[in-house]
What does this fold into?
Amino acid sequence: MASMNKVFLMGHLTRDPEVRYIPSGAAVADMRLAVNRRYKTQQGEDKEETCFVNVSAWGRTAETCGQYLSKGSQVLVEGRLRYDEWEKEGQKQSRLSVVAERVQFMDSPRRAQYGDAPDTEGAKASADRPSGPAREEPSDPAGDDDDLPF
It folds into this structure.
């Protein structure tokens, strides 16, 4: 039976990307994305709901995200869903997150504000490249779901 695990999300970062390096030397960028949905109720009232999604990027993509993105940056993420389970204080916990295979910057890099950034196309191209073959992905059960958007 065939299956597919593919996600496309566009939204704004709720905080600066947090880049860390695992023991193998691979870079990992942890990001939180706010994705808004606007709709009208049956009564014609305009409504908006926000979905917050944890996203991790790996390798060169992670490094580029850490270098050029900041809180409020708009990005398009192409990736796959990952389901994590763990136990905390005797309670089973679980979380869905996205592993980014590609991150496209939808606005200019933050360094452009200071005049020392490479051209925008170069930054976009480097973040768009897949980060290579699948790498070790540590589970981070202690993620903070208490972050406030913007």
Q: What stands out?
A: Residues 4 and 54 are 20 Å apart (CA to CA). Strands lie at 7-13, 18-21, 27-40, 46-58, 74-88, 91-105. The first strand starts at residue 7 and ends at 13. Residues 111-126, 128-136, 138-148 have pLDDT under 50 and may be disordered.
